[in-house]
Amino acid sequence: MTTMNDADTGDADMGTGVPFAELGVPKPLVRVLAADGKTTAFPIQADTLADSLAGRDLLGRGRTGSGKTLAFAIPLVARLGGERSSGADAMRDFRRMRRRGEDDATMRLPHPHGLVLAPTRELVNQIDEVIRPLADAYGLKTVTIYGGVKQGRQVSALRDGADIVVACPGRLEDLLGQGLLSLESVRIAVLDEADEMADMGFLPAVTRLLGKIDPHSQHMLFSATLDHGVDGLVKRFLKDARVHAVDSAESHVDEMTHHVFVVTQGNKHELVRQLASGMGKRILFTRTKYQAKKMAAKLVKAGIPAVDLQGNLSQNKRDRHLAAFSDGDVRVLVATDVAARGVDISGVELVVQVEPPADPKSFLHRSGRTARAGHSGDVVTLVLPGQEKEVRQMMRRAGLRIKSVEVTPTSPEVEELVGEHAPLVNGWELPAPAPQKPAGTGRRARARRRAAAAESHAGEREERRGSAKRGADNRGGGKRGGGKRGAVARNGEERRRGGNGGGSGPQRGGNAKSGGFHRHRRKSAPFRMGSGKKR
Predict the structure, then answer these.
(1) What is the CA radius of gyration of the chain?
(2) Is 166 within 8 Å of 141 (Cβ atoms)?
(3) d(Cα 357, Cα 337) in Å, to the nearest integer?
(4) What are the pLDDT digits (tens) for 324-366?
(5) 0.85 cut: is pTM over it?
(6) Collapsing DSSP states into helix, strand and coil, what is residue 188?
(7) In what order do the strands lie in the sheet with 281-285?
(8) CB 190 within 8 A of CB 71
């Protein structure tokens, strides 16, 4: 059985032996793939590319890690890039908008031509990392859309040009509701990890989003299973779809070795600490967010640098923790099932299921974080004495028959898995992010800001002048002492001055410049003798 990393899709010796060029992949994309060491296709790519490149609707079924991302990224970019080169997409959109009588404001909205929906923010970012180098070959722009962060940057990116949008359903629907983009020009729509979106309750939003897309567009749906309503999406939105199934959703990887360790509650924490103390990367799975946070903190206190990945973290912290684990700054990641989909990190040697998952699908998704792209890996499931029967039944449904072993933290089976112990690091803390230099701190930037400020002030002064002139016109046609309003202005000004010593002599009324009288700066009344003559 061949395995493959969703995002790192291609050591040449791990493919089917069929070069991408022979499968109809355009030359610009073949060159990009070859530069990244990808020359031959994996099974799901080789099976689907002929249909997807031809524009047919597609249903791809396969387990996690089978290479689905590149299987839809290649036809997505190839078809949109080809239309961009010929100018057919722009002309088609223009004719459609004019035919519908859309106004200029609607036409100026971002109208992406490609859409990829995924369940998690991590998966959205990793899909974008696969698509972006391919899109660059045709000058196409990609934009990621997901919640947990302010929408300002995402909206700006959309307005700067968005040919392909990779999004989580919730935030995308929110932006659509605000009228910040349109999906009417989408030519290709991809739904990745559809079964996971169903499990997370996203299907109603997904259904509404797909309903806003032209039904004649190409639809590609990738899912490990068709349960929980996914089959309804297939029937409603996929027309005469070609079905490609590479691996069963309940299949396991030959390069993966499973272990079931039965441990007492009293020894469990120390056993976890031992399994986390090795030199290689390892992921520890818990069932709850609180457990993940608490376990990571305990490991750090014990001298083992670790970070958590769970739903209560902000997007910035999630990104920092994933980057620290991916870059090797820490070797231990403690995660909830939110990371079972979308975490694509090479070199994970060991997966420890601290709490057994609830079902076979979750078990295999967790396990799939190791033994990727043909590499080997170990999966340890920790079981308390009362959980043995339940776990045994779940593994049988997943196609596994593993003999459980009773262990303690010092058992030979544990030491063999741990291997060399990493040095302890007391008082470890994740380094704070480096402060970013504010954009535009040089001499030219300061000059530009001064010029912009001067222009802004000039505009404000001009606006005040115009406002004053309009006020003068409204108060008396711009004539001194004109009409009833002018008299009112004169009387008001006289009261403000406290009289003029005798009340005789002419008074200044409104004028064209001040609109009756100047509200901010009044001229002093001329000094008069008792006879009323000016001195």
Answers:
(1) 34
(2) no
(3) 9
(4) 998 999 999 999 987 666 677 778 889 999 998 888 878 878 8
(5) no
(6) strand
(7) 306-309, 332-335, 281-285, 348-353, 377-383, 256-262, 404-406
(8) no
